[in-house]
């Protein structure tokens, strides 16, 4: 792809680093920004810079937050005895959109995947285990995607907390095997949360 401007080329190259954005799409986006009032681009850049430099991760659940505690963990109406374990922030957003879950979350930051060099130490599993040890948690809901990596991560966590008197459940398989939660429709995901099943049952399949 030939560019008449090095500045344009640099902007396209940076934009194409985003997931799902190829060079042609990046060029279309950059040219769109060039056509807009300069202030609009300035506001976009400033919002991204501020987000990157000042955003926090909730000290309780590791969700993205503007403060030390996210709005969910700080809400006294949420049931902190029930914790839904998810892979990333997008899963929290997907489940919240169903309006069917009123507990807390724990964001792992990924799934165990030796092929990708991701082991338990790269995730927030240790803080989850400490949370189970130190607090009155009654139930852990495993809400990871039903992939090999997701199932491996569920089983690893299950073994880590097996000695504690805590109920472990997994979302019902209304979510197809291999599906990511963020792509599930809200009705299906909501029903999967409501009709969760004991995790031990999933080990028999």
Explained architecture:
- With 205 residues, the protein is of the alpha/beta class.
- The protein folds into 2 domains: 49 residues, RecR Domain 1 (Helicase, Ruva Protein, domain 3); 146 residues, Dna Topoisomerase Vi A Subunit, Chain: A, domain 2, CATH 3.40.1360.
- Helices cover 43% and strands 13% of the residues.
- The chain is built from 9 helices and 7 strands, in the order αααββαβαβαβαβαβα.
- The protein has a 5-stranded mixed β-sheet with strand order 4-3-5-6-7. Strands 1-2 form a two-stranded antiparallel ribbon.
- Strand 5, helix 7 and strand 6 form a beta-alpha-beta unit.
- Helix 1 packs across helix 2.
- The model has no long low-confidence stretch (mean pLDDT 88).
Secondary-structure blueprint:
Blueprint: H1 6-15, H2 23-35, H3 38-54, E1 56-57, E2 64-65, H4 71-74, E3 79-86, H5 89-96, E4 103-107, H6 125-134, E5 139-142, H7 148-161, E6 167-170, H8 186-194, E7 197-198, H9 199-202
Parallel strand pairs: 3-4, 3-5, 5-6
Antiparallel strand pairs: 1-2, 6-7
Helix pairs in contact: 1-2
Q: Provide the β-strand percentage band.
A: 5-15%
Radius of gyration: 20 Å
- Rounded to the nearest angstrom, the distance between the terminal CA atoms is 51 Å
Question: How many extended strands?
Answer: 7
- Helix proportion: 40-55%
Number of domains: 2
Provide the residue-averaged pLDDT: 88
The biggest sheet, with number of strands, parallel, antiparallel or mixed sense and barrel status, is: 5 strands, mixed
How many distinct helices?
Answer: 9
From the helix content, strand content and strand pairing, which structural class follows? Answer: alpha/beta
